[in-house]
Amino acid sequence: xxxxxLLGLIIGLLANVVGMYFYIYFLIDLEVETAVEVAIENGSIxxxxxxxxxxxxxxxxxxxxxxxxxxxxxxLFATVLAAIVILxxxxx
Length: 92
What we know:
elongated; mainly alpha; 92 residues
């Protein structure tokens, strides 16, 4: 049970990072490292994290369809964790 939850969390975090990379690579005309640095300086890193979290829909619904509820719960937890990071980045 804990192993399944942890696996879902890791998959959710990985999907978020891949989503962020895709957003930066395809829609921003800068290198990935430069785009992240500029986003941190401008205070818009939360927006990039939020757009990257959209990719979490895919593994979440796949796990729900396969009835792997603990893995889906881990992906949901990764999404909530991303929301907390966004909230913290907006205040600091």
